[in-house]
Specification:
It is a single chain. Helix content is 39%, strand content 11%. By secondary structure, it is an alpha/beta fold. Strands 3-2-1-4-5 form a five-stranded parallel beta sheet, sandwiched between helices.
Length: 226
């Protein structure tokens, strides 16, 4: 169909990425959702991603399987304890051990490859520079640098068929702001999963950085996390 504007949306199954998917649909994109099975201990998030796509819709949803456990050095992919019960000062003090080396660079590279195949010029990612856990690959400077690289790196870009734009609709929002936007967009919060260290049944721990930041967002937004 002519006139369709395609976009690849990174979808983890968490609150932020689900809000990005809903935002992309509202903006009129034909959304191709991309999730990753990368050896994460919270692999249950992939089930959440599938539920979110079923609820909100997408033109396609694919799960790329890569194994970042071969590198380790992260509490999400290695035999390292996930930090629990930390306050905001502790979260802000240093880059946490839940940081997965180069994860967003890797994920965006996969999204770029799929976008080139689709002849799509738009990539959407739910990075946030305010209420986050200090990850360097969530900063605006990183996104701008990757976008510049993306337009030098592909056949489609060199030939002038596409010019990639990376959209970061949440980057300057607080977690409460993300919750409010998600509610406005009709995000099914109860289908999403944010915990870094769920138990064997997939139940959230409630004490990891991600759980605490999520709870803070809903509390400050005055919205119930269903």
């Amino acid at each position: 169909m002519k006139g369709v504007t395609k976009a690849v949306c990174l979808l983890s199954g968490g609150l932020d990425s689900a809000t990005c998917l809903a935002w992309a649909l509202r903006e009129g994109f034909e959304v191709h959702a991309l999730s990753f099975d990368y050896g994460q201990r919270h692999r249950v998030e992939l089930d959440a991603a599938r539920r979110v796509v079923e609820a909100l819709g997408a033109a396609d949803h694919r799960v790329a399987k890569i194994d970042l456990r071969v590198f380790g050095h992260s509490a999400l992919t290695d035999d390292i304890d996930v930090p629990k019960g930390r306050d905001e000062a502790q979260m802000d003090a240093e880059i946490p051990i839940t940081y997965v080396p180069a994860r967003n660079t890797i994920f965006l590279s996969f999204a770029l490859a799929w976008a080139e195949v689709l002849e799509a010029s738009h990539i959407i990612i739910g990075v946030n520079a305010l209420d986050y856990s200090g990850y360097p690959d969530c900063r605006p400077e990183f996104i701008a640098a990757f976008e510049t690289m993306a337009n030098l790196a592909t056949k489609a870009g060199v030939e002038g068929r596409t010019k990639v734009k990376i959209h970061t609709p949440l980057i300057q929002l607080s977690k409460a702001g993300i919750v409010r936007l998600g509610q406005e967009l009709g995000v099914p919060f109860g289908l999403t999963h944010s915990c870094y260290d769920p138990n064997s049944e997939g139940r959230v721990c409630g004490q990891c950085d991600s759980c605490l930041l999520r709870a803070k967002g809903f509390r400050e937004a005055g919205i119930e996390d269903l």
